[in-house]
Amino acid sequence: MSETTLEEARDGAVAIVGRTPWQITRSRLRRDHVTLVAMGFAVFFVLLAAMAPLLTAWKALDPYTSHTNLVGGLGSLPLGFWGGVSGQHWMGVEPGTGRDLFSRVVNGLTVSLLVAVCAALLSVTLGTVIGLISGTAGGKIDWLFSRVIDFVLSFPQTLMLIALSTIVIDILKAALHVERTPASMVFMILVMGFFGWPSFARIIRGQVLSLKEREFVEAARSLGAGRWRIYFKELLPHLWAPILVYSTLIMPQNIATEAALGFLGVGIQAPTPSFGSILNDSVHYANADPAYFIFPGVTLFLVVLSFNLVGDGFRDALDPKADRQ
Prior knowledge:
Blueprint: H1 3-12, H2 21-31, H3 33-57, H4 101-137, H5 139-153, H6 157-176, H7 180-211, H8 215-222, H9 227-235, H10 240-264, H11 275-282, H12 290-317
């Protein structure tokens, strides 16, 4: 080939620019409009829940004051259109007490997200640590952790939450010197976090079993890297994708579990607002005041749906086998 032809070939060549996994993930997320909308809703709910204590302290939200003049007397239905909806009460007021329903729903959102986030962090932390150790060590240690995972998974989570609630909450009240509501929150965080880690530990263990045979891990061992360096420098950076996906997928499950427990009467108790306790009260007025059930129910539905869609979107975006076209 002549010198002129080589120059023309070089001039017409297109540079190929490599992309990091995070750049590929962001590119996929930008094309997923459903996930982007769900992320917007999820961020809105998180910010609203984070600001609720401040808004309550500034009297912008008032979830506890009874407005008996808005319900035609104590124990009566709300006065006005659609459960007393007005410029001051965006979702109306509670039957019987006249408490602002919007304030109680927003404060209930704070409680639900706090419990869900803390339980998810506990599950992810335990699952990551145990999965790392089990997958790396192998042998008897791996066998022992696998049997512990099977043992924990054999317990039904909801049944254990109901069965242990009274005993454990009383123990926490005495040990922490707190009222029932904080003790109930700690109880739900501990139990949901404890029963949530085994399935994630299995995922991490499977990833570690694959990663520890890779060349970069073998190279680190040959250079004298210790166990902790292999954990934190070689293996853990390659596990952020399943950790992120599992965290976003377990969040809506924890929110729904907290609401279900409150509905059954073993979660957050009145007068502290929570989705479960509000929905438990609202079913008694489903025919007389449907707004009392619809507003909290739709809010809970949107919260769980948005986090579910975000989790599904991240799972698809982080899938290395996904179509990149």
